[in-house]
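Researcher: For the record, we're logging two predictions in this thread. I'll number them. Prediction 1 follows.
Model: Prediction 1, sequence and structure:
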Amino acid sequence: MKKIWTGVLSTALVAALLAGCGSNESSSGSANQGTDGTAGNGGAKSVTLKMLIAQPRLKEQYDKFVADFTAKEKKDKNIDVTVQLEMPTAENAAQILKTRLASNDAPDIFALHAINEIPSYYKAGYLEDLSNQPFVGKLLESVKPSVTTTDGKIVAVPLETLSWGYLYNKKIFTDLGLKPPMTLIEMKAVIEKLKANKITPFELSYKESWIPQLVLPLAAGALINTVDKDFVARMNKDEGSFTEMKAMFNIFDLINANGTDKALEVGGDDGAAAFANGKAAMWLQGPWYAETILKSNPNLDFGVAPLPINDDPKATLINLSASTSLAVSPTSKNKEVALDFINYVLDDQASNAFFQSLKFNPIATIHTYKSYPWVDDATAYVKEGKSYQDPAIPQAVKDEVGKGLQSYFAGQMTQDDVLKALDKAWKSFNKVNK
């Protein structure tokens, strides 16, 4: 969720996608292009399309896809398209996007988290109604609800659907005769077996705050589906408290006590490389990092398993979510081309290769590529009824979780401090979104 929804970038546009140089601008036109809507070479219309997609680790794949799109747009419609693509990581993307939207500088196309962000962005009027676009008819029925508003409008094309918990090194587990634990007691036994064989149990990578916050949706989802079913509804009414989620510290503390060093200096990419090379047996992370992991070690055999948060095996569940999705701004001056790109994401010819290169799950009827082994792992739990839909926790609260857990890990906040900060963040969200 995947993936799953991070990086540092100024609000200045990134340039030169095809030219590289750390930039992301692509064009099918020539140096003589006019401004938006004017004629370029040979009478072609010139358009600059601004995008914001918070997945910089997948820059290479987006570069190719954008280049293919601009070539198709030139061929089919004689439009010279220049794409200016900002690729912050999820750490700062939400704030960058909110600033752009509030200052009437909205990208034509932008990524947002389907579960966490569509409700508030739609209410604020930031999302174009895409219900009548051709891609809608290709979406799997199981995927459509994630990008559908309460009044029945589809407002984004999904990219990532996720089945996740944590990642584990299958070879290490097999060599030691271990199976993914289904209770906290079993997890402790796995940890002791790993340590006895001089293997570090967990990779810790908390430099980016969105990574430690992953423990919250896993713990909340487990508790909501077993003992606290109305938690989100009560929090939305200022009637609940995160003290009900205190059990998340049981597994978080266990992970932290048995992990790699210098966690606050290690980000997602470094964590992926370390995990890929066997530095630890498990990683609190989702399969959205599959492409990055396999870049470091193409032969790594890793799996996805649900994270136990207590000793009730019924609470050890896979999180099902739709995360990164692409929306169109209603204020776009290049809406025709923006909609062309949105539909190109599920193009009958191009989409299979694109999604496969991103290591994303199939989300449409046109997707015929074979699913990945880690997807099959998670699906096996889902088929057994061991899963839940990602809880609808506001993004502002998740941001606060990440910062709070970083401070908690550093010894600067207590458990109660973190929980109080989360209660405050949700109440602040409620005030703004009444």
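Researcher: Logged. Prediction 2.
Model: Prediction 2, sequence and structure:
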Amino acid sequence: MRDLLTLAARLGVTVHVAHLPEPYRGFYDHERCMVVYDFALTPIERACVLAHELGHAFHGHRGRNDPEAEAAADAYAAGVLVDPERWAQLEAMGLADIDIAEELGVTLKILRVFVKNHLTRVCGTTYTRARLGRGQFQHAARWAS
């Protein structure tokens, strides 16, 4: 959580906790540069919601109910929360997704977004999305076809 609060500060976003009405778990207010998340969230939910809302801040999203913005915020959260090296270790052990998510401290949804948006599978090897430059394929795990 400390890393997320540091990230929020770097983005110029303040973070607040409140009791939110159902079904809201959190929101980002672009004009006030603030994120609010629900007081009743579990620690894992809190981290995932905060990272998601920081994704909206990072991308400068202003509106609501935009599926593309929601998907971009989820992808940002997954990239921030999931350590590719740790994911590769757990995936190589053959754990179920729900167990991997629990070990990584993320929701199953965020784990699945990570797999969908941040991984590439090539010839039996899984890579995190290529980064330009040295070490671009440093996180790899074998998987059975």
